[in-house]
Design a protein that fits this description.
The strands form 4 sheets. Strands 1, 2, 3, 4, 5, 15, 18, 19 and 20 form a 9-stranded mixed β-sheet that branches. A 6-stranded parallel β-sheet has the order 9-10-11-12-13-14. The chain has 2 domains: about 1-55 and about 380-390 and about 415-435, Urease, subunit C, domain 1; about 55-370, TIM Barrel. The two termini are about 35 Å apart. It is built from 14 helices and 20 strands. The chain is α/β, with parallel strands linked by helices and about 450 residues long.
Length: about 450
């Protein structure tokens, strides 16, 4: 059955205009000032007067914990939270149990998602010291990329950014997108030892920004950029957290011509180091949330295209895993249900435009990963869409949470904008607070050349 969305403010490709939009066979069939269907043509009509229609957010960095860590989250639970938050596609990290370090394990995750995910999906191939040859076998058209995020390079120590000789080999041999977490381990260890000498095991959480410091991030990011530039490889930096790092990236080249791209995450745009005293472990992320200057600088870097996209780094842990001291509190937190509403709140505060939100959460993600037929509101593209009421205030309560971990750093916040409806592949999966009995999402596909 067709769906006709009437008179929405369509936010797409640097423009906002009132349009009708017709969905048929999973895709956008027609966009026009006015669309009228024959009375005998079966369809659902949605009056979207006053609502804003966005391309669904494509989140390129989530940890949905499935398989092996399902006490924290599952693909099923977190994909439900994602579509309720207007995220229609996600890319999941390899630090599940077992780590996704073989093509066989990678395909097992795809099979799992095919029967449990409400959103569209892709999975990164993990890489460490021992599986370079296997990782480089990934099919560019079927897999979003390879990454070390959440993994250890060697046994229980380190990330790839700290192993320049291995990076040289990786960049020389790879023809796919490589996405990296960038912090310097030696600096973090030095800072950790300093604060442990002062506080033993009871380091106040506010020092997380000093332990995983600006210096640790900038040092590693400079190192990785220098190596990548030798090979002109396709490199993407996850969760850039400092203004100094943002200033390392190019904003002159068109996005399609960039060989090095970068993202900022919602928590680094929303919180700063002053929030540690209030929220403690609940905003302990790696890289750390840092200064107000960094927070504001990242937003400016998004606007001027030094930073290319926005992601969540959704990484849920149980309340018990967060309710312990600094050394035992796990890093990460749940975000997919509230990422877009938080960005719309930044819009209300005058910090980012609606057009820029669409660009950084959908258009540019599709371009960076070369995703086929998604990320834009275009005729012929998959109908991954989000209707938003920009003027429907609501409070985030525990009872409203869909995360399996059942907590959020946004609890008790009031947002002025609310997700009204979410469509995945043309199917209404979330409707004014109600998750629908919908079909499962689809595996994302990509262009061969990265």
């Amino acid at each position: 059955m067709k769906t006709l969305i009437k008179q929405a403010f369509v936010v797409n490709e640097s423009n906002i205009s009132i349009k009708d939009l017709l969905i048929s066979n999973q895709r956008i069939e027609k966009i026009a000032d006015s669309i009228t269907l024959n009375k005998d043509e079966r369809h659902i009509e949605i009056d979207a007067t006053g609502l804003y229609l966005f391309p669904g957010m494509i989140d390129d960095q989530v940890h949905f914990r499935d398989p092996g860590l399902t006490h924290k989250a599952t693909i099923y639970s977190e994909s439900r939270a994602a579509v309720a938050g207007g995220i229609t596609s996600f890319m999941d990290m390899p630090n599940t149990i077992p780590n996704t370090l073989t093509l066989e394990l990678l395909e097992e995750k795809y099979k799992l998602a095919s029967t449990t995910s409400l959103a569209n999906y892709s999975f990164f191939m993990g890489i460490n010291k021992n599986n370079l040859e296997e990782a480089l076998k990934v099919d560019n058209e079927q897999v979003c990329g390879i990454t070390d995020d959440g993994l250890y390079f060697d046994a229980e120590d380190g990330i790839l950014a700290n192993y320049p000789e291995f990076l040289e080999k990786l960049f020389a041999e790879s023809n796919t997108l490589i996405a990296l977490h960038s912090e310097d381990d030696s600096i973090i260890k030095k800072n950790t030892n300093h604060y442990k000498s002062l506080y033993q095991d009871e380091i106040p959480f506010r020092f997380h920004a000093e332990i995983r410091s600006n210096e640790a991030c900038v040092t590693a990011t400079k190192r990785v950029i220098e190596i990548a530039n030798k090979h002109s490889n396709r490199l993407h930096f996850f969760h850039i957290s400092t203004l100094d790092e943002a200033n390392l990236f190019d904003n002159k080249l068109p996005l399609r011509e960039k060989r090095i791209t970068a993202e900022a995450c919602v928590h680094h745009l929303w919180f700063n180091e002053k929030d540690y005293d209030r929220l403690g472990a609940n905003i302990k992320w790696n890289p750390s949330i840092k200064s107000k200057e960094d927070q504001e600088g990242l937003i400016k870097a998004l606007i001027d295209n030094r930073i290319d996209i926005i992601a969540t780094d959704h990484a849920p842990h149980t309340i018990a895993e967060k309710s312990v001291n600094y050394f035992h509190a796990h890093s990460g937190g749940p975000l997919v249900q509230h990422a877009l509403p938080a960005l719309f709140e930044l819009y209300h505060l005058g910090k980012i435009s609606l057009e820029k939100i669409a660009e950084k959460t959908a258009h540019h993600v599709a371009e960076i990963y070369r995703i086929k037929d998604r990320g834009y509101i275009r005729e012929g593209y998959f109908a991954d869409l989000v209707l938003v009421n920009l003027n429907q205030p609501w409070e985030i309560t525990k009872s409203s949470l869909l995360y399996k971990c059942n907590w959020s750093p946004f609890e008790n916040e009031r947002f002025r904008s609310k997700i009204n409806k979410t469509f995945v592949n043309g199917e209404l999966v979330y409707d004014e607070g109600v998750l629908k009995n919908a079909s499962n999402g689809m595996r994302l596909t990509f262009e061969k050349e990265r």
